[in-house]
Design goal:
The chain is an alpha+beta fold. The radius of gyration is 24 Å and the shape is elongated. The protein has a 5-stranded antiparallel beta sheet with strand order 1-2-3-4-5, with helices on both faces. It contains 2 helices and 5 strands, in the order E-E-H-E-E-E-H. Helix content is 21%, strand content 22%. The chain has one domain.
Length: 116
C-alpha cells in the first residue's frame, strides 16, 4: 500500500499545483494546530489522520477514526475533504461479518449408559 498519492489538483485556481494525500506525521502537529485554529475547531486529537496538501500547503485533514474534518475555511476545500473521507473509508478494515445464529441444530448426544 502506498501511503502517499499525488495527482494534479482541481481544487485551486492554479491547475499546476499538486495535490498530495498522505498520512499525517508528528512534524505536521504545528500545521494541524494552525489549520484547526483557522477552522475554529478544537486542536486535533493525537490520532492517525490523513492530510491533503496543495502545492505543499496543508489544506485539510481527516482522522481515520471517523472524527470531524478540519479544513482551511479561506480556501476551496469541500472537494479535498470528500477525497480524504473516501480514502479514509477505503483504508478502514472491512466490517466484521455477523455470525449466523441460526442453521442446523446439532443432534442431541445419547445419554451415557449406566453400569449396574
Amino acid at each position: 500500500m502506498n501511503a502517499t498519492a499525488t495527482t494534479p489538483s482541481n481544487t485551486s485556481l492554479d491547475p499546476l499545483e499538486t495535490l498530495t494525500i498522505r498520512m499525517a506525521l508528528s512534524a505536521d502537529a504545528e500545521a494541524l494546530g494552525h489549520l484547526a485554529e483557522l477552522d475554529s475547531a478544537p486542536p486535533p486529537r493525537a490520532v492517525p489522520m490523513l492530510v491533503a496538501e496543495v502545492g505543499g500547503e496543508l489544506r485539510a485533514a481527516v482522522p481515520l477514526d471517523g472524527g470531524p474534518a478540519i479544513a482551511d475555511p479561506f480556501r476551496r476545500t469541500v472537494e479535498l475533504v470528500a477525497i480524504l473521507a473516501e480514502r479514509t473509508r477505503q483504508l478502514a478494515p472491512p466490517p466484521r461479518r455477523a455470525v449466523r445464529r441460526w442453521g442446523l441444530v446439532p443432534a442431541p448426544r445419547p445419554a451415557p449408559a449406566s453400569h449396574a
